[in-house]
Amino acid sequence: MIILLIDIYKCLTESPKSYHCHYHGPREFMQEKKVEDIYQHSARQFQKGTTRGYGARRAALDALAAMLRKNEQRILSALHADLAKHRFEAWTTEIGAVLLEIDFARRRLKRWMRPRKVSTPVFLKPGRSYIRPEPRGSALVIAPWNYPIQLALSPVVSAVAAGNTVVLKPSEITSNCSSLLAEMIGEELGSEIIQVVEGDAELSKSLVDRRWDYVFFTGSPRVGRLIYQAAAQHGTPCTLELGGKNPCVVGQEADLSVASRRIVWGKFLNAGQTCVAPDYLIVEQPSNDSHRSERVVEALMIEITRAYGAYPLENSDLASIVNDHHYERVLRFLEAGPSGDRPRVRTGGRSDQHARRIEPTIVDEIEPNHPALQEEIFGPILPIITVNSLQEARSVIEARDEGLAAYYFGSHRRAPEILNRVRFGGGCCNDTILHLANPHLPFGGSGPSGIGRYHGRYGFDTFSHHKSLLYAPRRFDLPLRYAPYGDRRLSLLKRILG
């Protein structure tokens, strides 16, 4: 009993920077205590007011940028260990993406923080009206595994720029990146503004049960709904960045050489484990061109060979599937559907279980209720559907929930028939994924694919409360609003407001 009490005392009196308790007794008690300590520490740090000023925010952003540059090789090694990402892909989509976000925020932060004067109606004159952005408080950020650095730190950049304290929960699935984030942030930033807590789904549940000032979650729609329900218990506002079936339409006038290259890049980036990757391809094949769909498939096959060679499983440019569970899940999309028919594999289909690699794969002749056309694939398999018109393409898309993204290849004149008529989070005409690279554009879902938005100014606004302020004059006081009331006053008021 004495040893037990000593171990508990050591855990309870740890410095807030250290969250790896070595006590092996009642796990639930220790985890709850750890979460409560982190939660309270974040709230206390915000209440001190040190994160509100421009200097503290700018210093935190500078420290994040310096941390990424200083630890570049360690980050690349962790990404390779978790996902076998090539250095080029890892730097551009993870480190470079966050550095872009930081630089964009640093150059505009003073302007974003300024109170904005707005118009004041005549009946409130000579008062003055302002909108003042203020930090929400203590924010919880729960990150996914597919882009374990970018999707962890990009929302943190927005939260810190807005003056909040942050608790970051990386995904335990990418354990190397999770541990590295905890170590880097602890070493370079301490725990005054950002804390990192590592753990499994039970720890995430314990975290979201607290009354945070804001919750930001990126992950699956299933878990997103649970996060939303937990946040609703406390009336906590939240952003949910989820996923869905992202359509990609190839119109009859599309340039196939350009379209195939950009579709292959967007689909097989990170082995298809990208929430905005094209999830299925719709090819418009008019009645006077019965071979167009076949030409699209041929163009895609040529581009896959150009990008990944004749033996993609041996090519280091192709990332791995994150773990055995997801490897087996993705391969099941190549199995027979409810009617017993297998999709026709046009190219790819081979896999390496030891390396958890699956070739870039194109399939067609799929029954409509096959899982590959009903569930988000999140892997390197691209189903193709052939339609006769863009109206039919819209019907195919609208039969599914809104995706996080949508893409159209063809003339700008016809693009609105898809991009303006279909509901989705964001997208491109004649490209894929690159709308995320523009910090002037908001990123977020629609309906089942997510709630809220971030990136650039939109991220700052998401993590800010926009306080409305009216500065009324002290001496000028219109008696019209005060009791006792009467019909004459009501008639005068109607004339003023009418």
Describe this entry's structure for a reader.
It is a single chain. The protein is an alpha/beta fold. The chain has two domains: 26-242 and 455-465, Aldehyde Dehydrogenase, Chain A, domain 1; 247-444, Aldehyde Dehydrogenase, Chain A, domain 2 (3-Layer(aba) Sandwich), CATH 3.40.309. Helix content is 41%, strand content 17%. A seven-stranded mixed β-sheet has the order 10-13-14-9-8-15-16. It has a six-stranded mixed β-sheet with strand order 5-4-3-6-7-17, sandwiched between helices. Strands 1-2-18 form a three-stranded antiparallel β-sheet. Helix 10 packs across helix 11 (292-308).
Protein traits:
single chain, alpha/beta, Aldehyde Dehydrogenase, Chain A, domain 1, Aldehyde Dehydrogenase, Chain A, domain 2, six-stranded mixed sheet, globular
Note the total helix count: 16
Q: What's the pLDDT, averaged over the residues?
A: 92
Provide the number of structural domains. Answer: 2
N-to-C CA distance: 78 Å
What would you say the CATH architecture of the largest domain is? 3-Layer(aba) Sandwich
Number of strands: 18
By CATH, the topology of the largest domain is Aldehyde Dehydrogenase, Chain A, domain 1
In short:
The protein has 16 helices and 18 strands.
Question: What secondary-structure arrangement, pairings included, does this model have?
Answer:
Blueprint: H1 2-12, H2 27-47, H3 54-70, H4 72-83, H5 87-113, E1 116-118, E2 128-135, E3 138-142, H6 150-161, E4 165-169, H7 175-188, E5 194-196, H8 201-208, E6 214-218, H9 221-233, E7 238-241, E8 247-250, H10 256-268, E9 280-284, H11 292-308, H12 324-331, E10 344-347, E11 351-352, E12 357-358, E13 361-364, E14 381-387, H13 390-398, E15 403-409, H14 416-419, E16 424-429, E17 450-451, H15 456-462, E18 464-471, H16 487-497
Parallel strand pairs: 3-4, 3-6, 4-5, 6-7, 8-9, 8-15, 9-14, 13-14, 15-16
Antiparallel strand pairs: 1-2, 2-18, 7-17, 10-13, 11-12
Helix pairs in contact: 3-5, 4-5, 4-7, 5-6, 6-15, 10-11
